[in-house]
Amino acid sequence: MKVMKFGGTSVGKPERMHQVKDLVTASDEPTIVVLSALSGTTNALVSIGEALAAADRILAKERIDALHAHYLDFYPQLLETEKARKKAEAIIKEHFEFLNIILKISFNEAINRDILAQGELLSTKLFYTLLEELEIPAVFLVALDFMSIDENSEPELGKISEKLKAILAQHPGEKLFITQGYICKNHRNEVDNLKRGGSDYTASLIAAAINASVCEIWTDIDGMHNNDPRIVDKTRPIAELSFDEAAELAYFGAKILHPASIWPAQQYNVPVRLLNTMDPQAHGTLIKADVETKGVKAIAAKDGITAIKIKSSRMLLAYGFLRRVFEIFEKYKTPIDMITTSEVAVSVTIDDTSHLKAIIQELETLGSVEVDQNQTIICIVGNMVSETRGAIKSVMDSLVDFPIRMVSYGGSRHNVSLLLDTKYKKEALQSLNEGVFQWD
Ligand code: ADP
Ligand code: ASP
Ligand code: MG
User: Fold this and answer.
1) What is the DSSP string of 87-133?
2) DSSP-H helix ranges across 297-384
3) Which ligand 2 atom minimizes the distance to the CA of 202?
4) Does any ligand 1 atom lie closer than 6 A to the CB of residue 220?
5) Is the CB–ligand 1 distance for residue 198 below 6 Å?
6) DSSP symbol at 255
7) Could you give phi then psi for residue 344, rounded to 5 degrees?
8) Nearest alpha-carbon partner for 36 in 60, 53, 20, 55
9) How far apart are CA 219 and CA 188, in angstroms?
10) Other beta carbons less than 10 A from residue 194's beta carbon
11) What does the pLDDT look like over 151-195, one tens digit per residue?
12) What is the predicted pLDDT for the residue at 385?
């Protein structure tokens, strides 16, 4: 069995949905299709939630109506028969009635997550209606019946696998299953989600849960590029990445993949393919276990980073100092991304600043603390150590004009991370692009 995930732009127009229909019916292999919401929908739902959180019901109503109008325009272009159109009308009515009811009740975070779930429910139901109209046999799966996260918002892969396999067993002989990306149930049995871009994560979790032959992520670009194509001029797709390389790039800002979307596939050794819905013949990127890598392969950047430096003479020759530092971050469930140390100071970076004040207060009991905000981690991925001499030289030469706040080298052989002020990011990425890669 294989998994095929289509992102927002791949289902964002009626003609694109038709293309998706062609792609998912092209092979004989049983397939679970994971769909995102139509492009723009989740952003619109977020903004509806924000208006309600600000108690601005008039603005929320305007935003609901604008989104509703988009769907009323969409479905007649998607479907031809009266019967299918009536069905789509009823689906859209149901979901927008729900949003309009929410306008009248008191707003809270759980309701907000219910609002966010409407996008994937709408896209999958409309796509399923298209398949019905074309008499293509398929089974509609509700992700909320099997996708779950625990109290730390971590996916429960064991439970997901058990439930999904039981559901699939009820449909022997079926070849095509359609389900929602992004949405899940939490430990309180409320509707929740896997964070923005989470449909990739859903696809990888499903691929791991059923031990799929491949997890295909279909999007609007021909694979993982060597640098961020939104920021840098001239980038190119990478044919192959190892799981570790892809995970690093995803975590450090390559938006094509959700930050956590690699580990489930990696754990069950399911190859991941990044493919382009607009150009299905393009090779894209194959992500798998063993990949031969020489030199630098790709660069990604992650903004919104805070650097914290703890300086203490007590660190000199002392053991246990780092443990005390890390315990403070652990206490506040705040992950650390980068670490650099000297004899008298340690610098770490975090991106979740929700407990920054409390963390600083506690760190101050260990030494003096300095905080730099608006930082960017630039992550350079490839075979950086041992076999490839000089890779780091081209990296550093490209960055001579930029003040670098931290460097982390040698933590793994496939990565160098650098920290600099976000205001230098664009120029630094461009300079690295020209200095580190070979261009004809
Ligand atoms: P989808 O809606 O299909 O999930 P996303 O917008 O989440 O698509 O991801 C695809 C986009 O990721 C591309 O259009 C591209 O702009 C952006 N992107 C950022 N970094 C990279 C990269 N290194 N390689 C390819 N795409 C990237
Ligand atoms: N629709 C969700 C989002 O826009 C999930 C996804 O597209 O992957 O974040
Ligand atoms: Mg995405």
Assistant:
1) HHHHHHHHHHHHHHHHTTS---HHHHHHHHHHHHHHHHHHHHHHHHH
2) 321-331, 356-363
3) 8
4) yes
5) no
6) T
7) -120, 0
8) 20
9) 33
10) 23
11) 999 999 999 999 999 999 999 999 999 999 999 999 999 999 999
12) 65
